[in-house]
Amino acid sequence: MKITTHEQLDLQFQGTLLIPVFETNEKSVVPIEFHGVSIPAEVFYGKKDTSYLAAKYDSLHLFIGLGKDARFKETRTIFRRIVSRNAELLKGNVALVLPDGLTEAQAMGVFSGILLGTYNAGHFRKAKTHPFEGEYELTVIAKKDYRALADKAFRTAQAQLEILKLVDLPPNMVNPAYLAKWALEAGERFGFTTTVLNREAAAQAKLEAFLSVGQGSEQEPQFIVMEYRPAKMTEKTRHIGLVGKGITFDSGGLNIKTAGMVFMKSDMAGGAAVLGTMRLVADLQLPVKVTAIVPACENAIGKSAFRPGDVIGSYSGHSIEVIDTDAEGRLILADGLSYLLKNYKPDTVVDIATLTGSSVATFGNECGALFTNNVELEMALRGAGETTGERLWPLPLWDAYKPDIDSDIADVKNYHSKPTAGAITAAKFLEFFTEGHKSWAHLDIAGVAFGDDEFGKSKHATAYGVQLLTTFIENHGYGGA
Ligand code: BES
Ligand code: ZN
Ligand code: ZN
Fold first, then answer.
1. Ligand nearest to the CA of 252
2. What is the pLDDT of residues 160-190, one digit of tens each?
3. 129 class by beta-carbon count within 10 Å (0-12 exposed, 13-18 middle, 19+ buried)
4. How many beta carbons lie within 10 A of that of residue 365, not counting itself?
5. Which pLDDT score is estimated for 479?
6. Which of 58, 174, 188, 349 has the fewest CB atoms within 10 Å, i.e. the most exposed one?
7. Which residue's CA is minimally distant from atom 14 of ligand 1?
């Protein structure tokens, strides 16, 4: 999608006008007015989540309430809703009339909401395309030139659309090989290198924890490594490492799930967030080095599946006692983190995963759980989350929780067999594999990656993490350039 900007509406214009309006006042005596259409405040005064449609001079005027000081995410939702619900009205010419005083964040929300509004989760239903899809050129009426801002908003939303699809597509389609192919193709197209270790290569590299999780599945595990290097690099260029959980389906393994298995196609949402971030970072050509790993496999039940009680190896050389095969995410992330740290030595490492039901029990669907040993990193991630509306809230990594992962037989165990502090002990397990790195954060996104909202009848993808991580990287992690 592209825009053309004009200062004034062409008097000959015929079509649909989208007119966002800031909230005035219920009792305002001044009507809201545009292009000869006047609406008294009793009917519409710009309140958030309201709209007013009027037909005049062969044009439809859709007035859209913005509220008084809508933030980025609220503005994006307003526009996503308008565009997804009113496809019929948007078939002909469309002009977007932007008010003076729109903040940058609000303008970003408007443009990204417009593109996200084209998303249709009915990937296997009879095709219905939205008029805004493809090379659509939107007319924008505004005093400011919004081209650069709209371009960034559209690139961001495009990456999110891809990730919505990747997470929503079913697990018989999105298997580890599918993710690997996605990463290879995105790398070619946007400019990062992708290397994939298949079962044999991963075995040679001794990615033993990763391979243990994948060994019960017919689907070959794929350990995906991506490297983005900016065109200009100096000694000061920061290097950020990402690891995303890529379980394409989590049956629980032999500790088979008794609840919620139907949602477990979303167990690769952390990996998908990392894939989307790589695509967007490269597309925006951000001046930061990024190395990202998505260990991708399926946690299946089969004659060669790993068992509760098994002791397995890991890339780090530490042995792990498997108490519960459903605590598989931390096993593949452990190898992802060790591989990244040993081979790439990034300045900062962030992992992101749909890791525990416990984080959902704690925060519901409002925010991701943030664990970090670094206050500056905490502030940078939470700040990025406030900007993009993908919020994070901290939980502790106190050593008081460390005994929960002590094993009698191995260096560490993957589950404490208690109904308490599940998200924290999972984070302590990951911490064990970070080799004391001074700038590491773990984001448990089980409650925010896949949710219920007005854009679908059942739970669906949110693309949580793509814009959050990209914004964080754009801000150079923390501590400036
Ligand atoms: N993939 C799940 C976590 C999850 C739960 C994601 C709900 C999204 C929504 C993870 O692998 C898992 O099964 N965690 C268990 C661990 C426990 C049984 C050892 C959990 O948190 O219940
Ligand atoms: Zn699991
Ligand atoms: Zn899982």
1. 2
2. 999 999 999 999 999 999 999 999 999 999 9
3. exposed
4. 16
5. 58
6. 58
7. 356
